Amino acid sequence: MTEPRRVVLGVGGGIAAYKVCELLRLLTESGHDVQPVPTSSALHFVGTATWEALSGHSVATDVWTDVPDVPHVALGRTADLIAVAPATADLLAKAAQGRADDLLTATLLTARCPVLYAPAMHTEMWEHPATRDNVGTLRRRGGIVMDPAVGRLTGTDSGPGRMPDPSQIADLALLLLARPDALPRDMSGVRVLISAGGTREPLDPVRFLGNRSSGRQGWALAQVAAARGATVAVVAASVELPDPSGVQVTRVGTAAQLHEAMLAAASDADVVVMAAAVADFRPRDTQQHKIKKDGREPNPVVLVRNPDILTELVRDRRTGQVIVGFAAETGDADGDVMTHGRDKLARKGADLLVVNAVGAGKAFEVGTNEAVILSADGTEVDVAHGLKTQLAAAVWDVVSARLAQPAR
Ligand code: CTP
Question: Does domain 6-178 have CATH number 1.10.3720.10?
Fold first, then answer.
């Protein structure tokens, strides 16, 4: 865990305010000191007592409480991060104009820390040219404005405008606390394709051969790339996490389905990342009915090879496309983790290979990771143990630098 930091949690007047209680919880449970600053409209949805009880701080909406402390200046100067959720159309407009008519908007002007906005509003409001301009202005000034999720809105309608899932807002907030410069908007116009999760190869309708990948590293890559401005598509094998907001997700099960989906989408991508754990083998026969024991000895399962997707992506790559592989290694009698990693990078022909050591509670099903990013040109970037979003940001730093080089 990173050392405790001070977060100002600005809460706008939208129904999604009720979900921000969960965000507040996630941030305090990560050890941070969170000061909620609701707008007076937000209090129509969730009252003062809830914010005070969950944060352990008294809350105010205007600058006329505790006047001698000059609260808007004190809050702005001491904050390590301001997260605004839900960021309503009105709040985005006020922030873009530099208005300062309540405690939250005044604090936004005094703060010099990163500001993360999680929008929530009706689709028409999100798509209105006024809101588009305001979002553009805030992003140009360095504000991190997440794309809203697509889904059910306040009434029976659905579309873009739903607040991103609180866990995903927390993921980016925790990343910014660990590394304030992790989300520059340097990937605008870059099309990214990422595979995530672990494939499942069915034996019968209820059983499969699978692996322990949760998809969290692939999700972190997608969230961070989207926040840095990229257009992101993910092919997800057996991932049980909510879709990252602003990311197009295709759900698959088997390696064959992942293979088909990745090869179909790769030609439109500037960067392809194979973060999925792909089964190298699948059962030759999938039974149509549940396999019964029937008092018999079990039949051996005959396996056949799956295609190596990364190798095929490299074979079919377009000029200038950057291809990134992942390798989870344990080291064995033939060599340590890095020896296997360097061999694999050469064998697969990718531009980059992110090598991490697995086993004994490392990497799988946890929120943290550590790795070395190997480049085909021999350079190595060590990424210390940290959040999966931190590893994702380090990968995008290396990719961004490659894309900025003159055509290879
Ligand atoms: N990969 C792939 N298709 C496969 C297997 C792996 O595209 N059938 C990709 C993974 O997504 C990863 C990289 O190849 O980006 C390395 O995966 P890994 O399982 O470590 O490599 P393998 O080639 O399976 O090598 P090993 O013999 O170590 O299992």
Answer: no
Choosing from 211, 306, 356, 369, the catalytic residue is 211
Query: Which residue ranges does the chain devote to CATH 3.40.50.10300?
Result: 191-404
Compute the distance from residue 279 Cα to the ligand 1 centre, in Å. 8
Q: Could you read off the pLDDT of 126-185 as tens digits, one per residue?
A: 999 999 999 999 999 999 999 999 988 887 888 899 999 999 999 999 999 999 999 999
Ligand 1 atom index nearest CA of 277: 11
Long-range contacts of 284-288 (CB under 8 A, 24+ apart): 286/202, 286/203, 286/204, 287/203, 287/204, 287/205, 288/204, 288/205
Mutate-to-test residue for ligand 1 from 211, 278, 309, highest number of ligand atoms within 8 A of CB: 278
Model confidence at 299, in pLDDT bands (50, 70, 90)?
Answer: confident
Any atom of ligand 1 within 6 Å of the Cβ of 380: no
| Residue 211 annotated as catalytic | yes
**Residue 358 reports pLDDT greater than 90:** no
Q: Is the pLDDT of residue 1 over 60?
A: no
| Ligand 1, atom 8, residue with closest C-alpha | 308
327 close to ligand 1 (CB < 6 Angstrom): yes
CATH number for the region 191-404 comes to 3.40.50.10300
User: pLDDT grade, residue 408 (50/70/90)?
Assistant: low
Please name the residue whose Cα sits nearest to atom 4 of ligand 1.
308
- List, as one string, the DSSP characters of 382-393: EEEEEEHHHHHH
Which structure tokens are listed for 93? 């407009």
Q: Is 352 in the pocket of ligand 1 (CB under 6 A)?
A: no
Q: What is the pLDDT of residue 152?
A: 82
* Number of Cβ within a 10 Å radius of residue 240: 8
